[in-house]
Automatic annotation (TrEMBL):
Keywords: 2Fe-2S, Iron, Iron-sulfur, Metal-binding. The keyword Ubl conjugation does not apply. One of its GO terms (cellular component) is cytoplasm. Residues 31-67 form the Iron-binding zinc finger CDGSH type domain. One of its GO terms (molecular function) is metal ion binding. This is CDGSH-type Zn-finger protein. The lineage of its organism: Bacteria, Bacillati, Actinomycetota, Actinomycetes, Streptosporangiales. Pfam families: zf-CDGSH. It comes from the Bacteria. InterPro entries: FeS-contain_CDGSH-typ, MitoNEET_CISD.
Amino acid sequence: MDEPPDADPVTVTPCENGPLLVRGAFRLTTQGGEEIEPGRRTVALCRCGASAVKPFCDGSHKAIGFTAPSGPDVSC
Ligand code: FES
């Protein structure tokens, strides 16, 4: 039997020089499986390590000059 199409698929978008934007019907949990309430339907997750409110982005990536591409980093 076919699965119904997901009406609200989850997308994760790496922002150039910034966070990961997560949209859709996602669940955010700790490593131990406890729910983290995102408070909204789209969240920005820190990938620079400088946020004071991890796992969320607080804009600190700008202050530290974080750089990363939006797509795969093929320079490695
Ligand atoms: S990506 Fe924004 S604070 Fe880390």
